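Late entry, evening session. Most of the bench is empty. Finally got around to the prediction I had been postponing all week. Sequence below, unchanged from the version circulated by S.P.
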Amino acid sequence: MTRQSQPHAPRLGELEISVLEHLWTIDTATAKSVHELVGRGRGIGLNTIQSTLDRLYRKNLLSRRKVGRAFCYSAVVTRASLLASLVAEAALRLGQDRSMAMSALVDAAEQLDEAALDELEHLVASRKSAAGGGR
């Protein structure tokens, strides 16, 4: 999911996020198997899981293919690209000031721990290096 292909990050509920996280770990699943591992423990019915998978499919976050009488679903976005899209959307919604958005990103990393700031610094250096020394 790039900025060009998906200008607005989709709104996601808690169940949608749980289903996506499940699919990121196992690659492909039917509604029945997702229900067993995500829905049953929450007291959620199979129909709710099927509706959730369909919503994620309509939001272009999942692909599906028919296998017998059921659909098999797979995530079409990575966790990292979805997170990047959500962060970029939040920054755009809260203001166009790039400096403020970057400062907020550093503040968020700092709230995690010092290691997160070190990792952010490493990621920035890696991206600059990959782009030929920065812009």
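Two things to note before I forget:
The CA atoms of residues 28 and 34 lie 10 Å apart.
The radius of gyration is 18 Å.
Will write this up properly tomorrow.
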